Amino acid sequence: MVPSDLEPVHSRLPTLQTVRCGSKAVTRHRRVMHFERQKLMAVTEYIPPKPAVNPRCLIPPLRPTQEETGLIRLLRREIATVFRDNRMIAVCQNVAMSAEDKLLMRHRLRKHKILMKVFPNQVLKPFLENSKYQNLLPLFVGHNLLLVSEEPKVTEMVRILKGVPFLPLLGGCIDDTILSSQGFINYSKLPSLALVRGELVGGLALLMAQTHSLLQHQPLQLTALLDQHVRQQHEADPVMPASGQPNPPDSVPDS
After folding, report:
1. Which residues contact 75 (CB under 8 A, 6 or more apart)?
2. Which of 68, 147, 188, 226 could hold 154 in an S-S bridge, CB 3.0 to 4.6 Å?
3. How are strands ordered across the β-sheet holding 144-149?
4. At what angle do helices 154-162 and 181-188 cross, to 10 degrees?
5. Closest Cα partner for 116 from 183, 190, 167?
6. In the prediction, which pLDDT does 39 show?
7. Pick from 189, 131, 194, 197: which is nearest to 159 by CA?
């Protein structure tokens, strides 16, 4: 066995190692083309001939028509049903909401019989273009959702949307009348239908009472005048006996 102090030098591990810390050679730089080659490439560059007819004057090729799938037909029927059976249709911007917030908002709206509907614009826009609601098309930009109800529950809807400030109300229609977002707010400030009906009935009853009193005033006055005239006639006439013959006048005594 060879002692450790007699081991060859090449078999020992070095105590110090040199590490190259300089930058590596980069070989991916684009080499500059030689000047002669640049001239040759410029001379031999291909120049396509100009077309005889401007492409804008040519008839564009017909695009293949896509067949409607069953899902598209189902969505179109559902959209037609929504616009036919509901008096209030509000359009809101469909912002990014968590599933929990969206479920809570849907539950709060359903308490007032307000439903939340989401349809793709690829199906909704063609329906609006061929219907009487075509003026609503500018509202459907990006992702939208519909708030619909059979009765105009505008007050309840506006109150719920105020609690969700990041869900803007764009507009909509009530009874085929298009309203903006401010129009919905003004509509929500109107009194309820029952209160308006009560005020209308009260006003009509007051007018009917005034008309009745005006119509009865003249006959009552005429009746009073006739009664007074009859009494005056009875007071002026002589008293009639039971036989019906007037009493003879008193004789003047002879002087």
Report:
1. 119, 120, 123
2. 188
3. 115-117, 144-149, 88-93, 169-174, 177-180
4. 110
5. 167
6. 92
7. 189
Kindly state the tokens that stand for 2: 């060879």
Alpha carbons 32 and 34: distance in angstroms, whole number? 6
Low pLDDT (below 50) residues in the chain: 1-2, 242, 252, 255
- Residue 86: per-residue pLDDT: 92
Q: At a CB cut-off of 8 Å and minimum separation 6, what does 172 contact?
A: 88, 89, 90, 91, 136, 139, 147, 178, 179, 184
- DSSP result, the chain: ---GGGS-GGGSPPS------SPPPP--SPPPPPHHHHHHHHHT---PPPPSS-GGGSPPPPPPPPPPPHHHHHHHHHHHHHHHH-SEEEEEE-----HHHHHHHHHHHHHTT-EEE---HHHHHHHHHTSTTGGGGGG-SSSEEEEEESS--HHHHHHHHHT-TTS-EEEEEETTEEEEHHHHHHHHTSPPHHHHHHHHHHHHHHHHHHHHHHHHHHHHHHHHHHHHHHHHHHHHSPPP-TTSPPPPPPPPPP-
Taking the model in full, what pTM does it have? 0.55
- β-strands 169-174, 177-180 pairing: antiparallel
**Using CA atoms, how far apart are residues 108 and 114, in angstroms rounded to an integer?**
9
